[in-house]
Structures are given as structure tokens and as C-alpha cells.
Design a protein that fits this description.
By secondary structure, the protein is α/β, with parallel strands linked by helices. It has one domain: Rossmann fold (3-Layer(aba) Sandwich). 40% of the residues lie in helices and 22% in strands. Helix 1 packs across helix 6 and helix 2 packs across helix 3. The model has no long low-confidence stretch (mean pLDDT 92).
Length: 211
């Protein structure tokens, strides 16, 4: 666990961006039952935390990516952070929809970019990884070079890690993750030992948990 991972996990708990509810599970769009809900959009309402998350994202980009022409945000959760990061770097910003528009120009990617541009994609949350990888693939299909992706938080599912490993051209860096978050919550006495066991079980079997 590094300082950034610990700090971001603390931020998410401090502002209620993460809710732990093992006894009353949430239902995701995928149909999965979950004892945790993470809403990173709340970060935007807290200027000091928003600025720190932006700073950590910049630090990650500067450390890992030598060539950056354009910053891309995955709609909708990462648009605001991506725009903030692009502004700090004085770089163009684009954003990526899940699918192309069904009217107008039919764009999936909004903004100005050029063939061969080196792009870093900003994501707010990695769950299964499918939508994040699809966004990166859309940028590649448009003729750009995706250097990698920086996300605020990952659930650290084994299946998602495997998907990113198979997508060998895409480097993923996350500011924090589920394991660090749960450890931080335990340190703060926010979860009981019984709930902790349940949270660990869900982390390894999310698709069947609660059924």
C-alpha cells in the first residue's frame, strides 16, 4: 500500500463516496449483488479533495507516460476529472461515449484529435473492465495511440485484471483499490469482523455472491 492509495481510500470514506452495506446489498446494472457502492463523482463537490485527486492523477501520468498529446475522459464519470487534468497539462481534451450517438454526427468520441496522437485515458472506476477497455479500443480505432489509462478506483476483480493483462498494449494505473479501501475501513472500525469476511468473499466471487 502506497501513500496515494491510502490517501485516496481515506478521501472516499471521508466524503461518503463509498458506502459499505453488506447486510443490504446494492444491485448493479449487470445484475450483480454488491455490498459496496462507490460514487467517485462526489469528489467533485469537495475542492480540496478534488484538487488532490487531480494532483495524484497528474503525478501518475508524469511518472509513467513520456509522450502525451491528448487527455481523454470516459463518459460520464471521468469527464470532469479528465478536463481538469488536461487543463493542468495544457493539453487538448476529448471524451468517449459508451456507444456512438444515434443522431447528429454519430460521434462516439467528442473533441478534436489527430491521427497518431498519443492519448492517456482517464477513468473513474474499474469494475469488470469491459467498458473501460471498450473506450480505449474506440480511441485506437479512431487512429490514435493509447499510451495507457489512469483510474481513481478499481475493485481489483481477478477477471478485470486478466482482461487488462490480455490487452497487453494498455497499461492501467489506479490511484486506489478495493483491498486498500477495506483495510482502511477496518483501521477506522467501520466494518465488523463478520462483515469483513463477507466483503472478502464478495471480492473473489462477485458474479455469484448473494444469489
Amino acid at each position: 500500500m502506497n501513500t496515494i492509495e491510502k490517501n485516496v481510500a481515506g478521501f472516499l470514506l471521508d466524503i461518503g463516496a463509498v458506502q459499505l452495506r453488506p447486510d443490504e446489498p446494492f444491485t448493479w446494472a449487470s445484475g450483480w449483488k454488491s455490498p459496496i457502492y462507490c460514487d467517485n463523482r462526489k469528489i467533485l463537490s469537495y475542492p480540496e479533495i478534488r484538487n488532490k485527486v487531480c494532483e495524484y492523477t497528474l503525478q501518475t501520468i508524469e511518472e509513467h507516460f513520456k509522450t502525451v498529446d491528448v487527455i481523454a475522459g470516459v463518459a460520464t464519470g471521468a469527464i470532469a476529472l479528465g478536463a481538469l487534468v488536461a487543463d493542468r497539462l495544457n493539453k487538448p481534451f476529448i471524451y468517449i461515449r459508451p456507444v456512438p450517438k444515434d443522431h447528429g454526427m454519430g460521434n462516439q468520441i467528442e473533441g478534436v484529435f489527430h491521427h497518431g496522437d498519443h492519448v492517456v485515458v482517464i477513468e473513474d472506476l474499474i469494475s469488470t473492465g469491459s467498458s473501460s477497455l471498450a473506450a480505449a479500443d474506440a480511441v485506437t480505432a479512431a487512429g490514435c495511440i493509447v499510451e495507457g489509462m489512469v483510474a481513481i478506483f478499481s475493485y481489483n476483480f481477478t477477471s478485470a485484471r486478466r482482461e487488462f493483462e490480455l490487452h497487453s498494449a494498455l497499461e492501467l494505473y489506479t490511484l486506489s483499490n478495493y483491498d486498500v479501501l477495506i483495510e482502511t475501513a477496518v483501521e477506522r472500525n467501520l466494518v465488523s469482523e463478520e462483515s469483513l469476511e463477507m466483503l472478502r468473499e464478495w471480492r473473489y466471487r462477485p458474479e455469484t455472491w448473494g444469489k
